Amino acid sequence: MDRLREQAATSVVMERAKGVVMALDGSSADAAEEILHARAKAARRTPLEECWITLGELTPVPPCDEASTPRPQGDDGSAKATTDAPEAFSAPDDVADALSRLGRALVHVDTHQALARCLLDHLAPDLDAESVMIYVRRSGGGLELAGHAGIDDGLAARWRLVPPLSGVAVVEALRSGEPCWLEDFARDSTRYLLIGEPPERWQSRVWLPLRGGDGSEVCIGVLRGRPGVFAPRERAHLRGVVRLCAGRVRSFTSAAVPVVEGEADAVQSLFAALPVPAMLLTPVVSSSGDVEDFRVDAATAQAADLLGGPSGNLTGRRLREVRPDLTDLPVWQGCLDALTGGGPYDSEPFAHQETVDGVLALATYSVRVTRLEGALVVAWLRHAPSDRQEQRLAELQRLGSIGWANWNLSRDEASWSAQVFAILDRDPADGPVRLDGLPGLALPEDRAALRSAVESLLREGLPFDAAFRIRGGRGVRHLRLVAEVVADAHGTPFEVHGVVQDLTARRRAELALVESERAILTQHDVLQSERVLVARLQHALLPLPDKVIDLSGLRVEVAYLPAQAGIHVGGDWFSAVELPGGDSLFVIGDVAGHGVDAVATMAQLRFTAKGMVSTGSSLTGALSRLNSLLLHTRDAHGTATMVLARYHAADRRLVWAQAGHPPPLLLRDGEATYLPRPPGMLLGATSAPYFEETEHHLEPGDRVLLYTDGLVERAPENIDVSLARLADAAVAQPEDAPGSLSTLLDAMLEDERRDDVCVLDIRVPREQ
């Protein structure tokens, strides 16, 4: 996003500069772009820098002094002006790089204040600049501080306005159109009235004038705490800064709708006499024709406080200088809409803390913007306490979908709040309905109960709380009416107070909740039945031995634990059979998913694997055929992991292959290691899998654990941490007696099981 914003802002500068070249040379857009790039290349500048310079030189910029040598001194000690064509400007490479960065930063600058901060950030590292001040010439010749950085607000307020007097360096710089270099504080303090409290805070400074496109003048001051002259490199740097800033400042000082001088005093006098906060705004239009700011041509004394900006006279100031965040508020768009003929704009009420007779009080205001020919009149309207109470009551009724209704029985009159008309979907022009006519608005099946409640209230004075339904343009709505009687001194009812509430949303939520609960209960019953069915099917297909079994001289113990979380049965399975010739086959696998499909796929893989290996198939060949089975069998469940291991009793070799499954754990002499996994892919993942097998020699006393991932995986724990935890637990449980597998499972499965667990515990007896 930052990159796109940067690109968009840069494109705006480029398009403006192209427009200037097209207007001056009569060239096409493409030709104008080529001209800008050619100029930039010839001057060793970036295209963006060339665009800023092009925009700044629409009105010729008075050249700064020579950057390569110190300025010659006159008889009075002041610096003499020298001239140099803009095209002759050149700078060292490091200065050129710095100016390139400044050119990119300027695309995000849109006010004098932002420009001052940007320049201080740019100049502080290289020139030891401590402060930057930007003055703008106003009508009458006086100067106004439009932006500053590195100085406190108190000093800025005291030096905000500078009269057009001689002996002030910034005035002299603008008057001569030449930079004013102040590099000897002792001498300069006798010739000029220096800014600062105290002035010696800045031992050296320079005032750099530049002109905007509409003839208004701007002067940038760079102030340093250290004494001494500005070196040639530093002057080159500042000269380049002025050239770049001229184009940026031109957009700040673009033409605005002028105020007739003869009318200005009269308008300001009129606004000064107004008893309410108000302003007269004139739009400031950029070179592209967009309104980028508003100038305050007249304002009342109260306007500054409500605007939230600095106190004092706002006349002549830019609105965004007073309130920089104004463009993010709805009132800004309201001003633009009112200016383009969208009609008056009225803001939402807002709270404002003000001081009344020395006491802080919270008041409520709203802003009204009205177009006056080419200008805008902005006024703040203060709401009386009664207005606020009425507004709060209306908001309460709207937010709560509730309204009040009164029926005067003695005069046979009724009055409703606006919210009651909205709730009952009734046109206010038709007026309220009599109390005894309310039942006629209800659905036929609800009328009798509502009529009985109304009659009891009128006859016996019994209050009621009745629910009923109506049918309107928004469909059937569920309403509630609460009413009570107010009697006179003799106990005779003379008025009925009532409240009508729309309960449609709540009622629909209640009905949806009931339906959801019913669906959940039904689904739970279905899933529970499926679980029982699948568990029985699994038990039939995967019978668990009730004791330790002996295979090929090995002692094998099996454990299967279903998941405790959820109601589906998983697809974990095992197989341990003795093969012809005295060898044994050990298989453990995990089918993805749960339920009937997983169990069916498990059975298919279990019996097929046993059959393939029993008839002489290699382990890798069996895995390849099982992969094809998953891929091509109709309604296959998807994927599965598996370990196939063949134990050769004659030489105690364990040959095994795997398909995406965790490796077996070997325990020997009190140490636990995982057997290196041969290559093998998840079954059902690809039509061209690759499998390898490996072998490991077992010794007397060895223990091998084959297991499914439910034994080790714990979200969000890393799998390596889980495997290390299993190895530590197995080493800590060295029992060799039957049933020791249960002790290991208890140590590993402390929390609720979220997946099935299947384990084959294979032990090589110790030699007698």
From TrEMBL:
PROSITE patterns assigned: PPM_2 (PS51746)
UniProtKB keywords: Hydrolase
Tree of life domain: Bacteria
Region (Disordered): 59-89
CDD domains the UniProt entry points to: PAS (cd00130)
Chain ranges of the PPM-type phosphatase domain: 555-764
Protein name according to UniProt: SpoIIE family protein phosphatase
Species this protein is from: Streptomyces griseoincarnatus
Highest classification ranks of the organism: Bacteria, Bacillati, Actinomycetota, Actinomycetes, Kitasatosporales
